[in-house]
Structures are given as C-alpha cells and as structure tokens.
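User: Could you check the structure of this?
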Amino acid sequence: MISQEKLIEELRKSLKGTPVAHRLCDKYGEDPDFVDDIPIRFEPLDVSAKTVNGEILLNSKLLEGEFRDDMRYLVHEFTHCLQQEHGKVDESTKDEDYLDDPNEKEAFKAQVDFMETAYTPAEIQTYLDGLMKHHDVRGKERLKKIKELAK
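Assistant: Sure, the predicted structure tokens are below.
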C-alpha cells in the first residue's frame, strides 16, 4: 500500500497536470505550483473532504478507494483554496443554501469538469443523482441544479 505522503505527492502532481487546475489558476492569477503550498492531509471526517483555513482535509476512507475519487475531491477543495486565497469566501455566502452558494457551484463545476476526463457519462450522472438525493433536491429544481453543476 502506498504511504499517505506518497499519495499526496502523486495527487499534487496529477492536479497540476489537469486542464481544470490550469483554468482555475488562470482565473485566479496563480501558478499551478500553488498547490505545492497547500497543506493536504487525510483524517477521519464526517464528509468526503473539506477546506479549512487554506488546508485541504480528505477523508481517511478515501485511502481505500480509487485515485480518481481522491482527485475529484481534491479538485473541488483546490477550488475552495483559491477562493479563500483571493477573498471570495465570506460570511455572506454562508447564508446560501449549500448548492446555491456561488463558491460551491464553482467547486462542483470544477469537480464535474475533472470527472469528464476520468469517469463515464453514466458514472457522472450517478454521482450527480446521488448529490441531489443527499441534498434533498427534487423535481424541476433537481434538473436545474444538475445543469448548473454540469455546465
């Protein structure tokens, strides 16, 4: 089994090579090497991943999964690191419904953008369906949200 340190090194390297990371870095005026300065660690969490004060925390359960799953969460959280670095996260966005929060929309779009290079369309649809179910989004609103997050 690969060590956490080696996995994190591989995740950083892979992230820097993705078109989505390059687009995000261009948007925020950062070099893809920005990821090298972000603390990343695995730990037990009640969610798959989160970013706290510019540090990416990945659920330790991801250590047992597929690399591409680690990457999709890393892309999402990398987006939040860029947002935080550039002052896009403030208390005003905390009042938004999670999937209506502009910062979350941007992060989910980046995640789905990455997924388009590593997952089948059916796998992406299954992921989005599960996301909508988890957040209890139904009916026309469900279709609208999926379109927003999948471009």
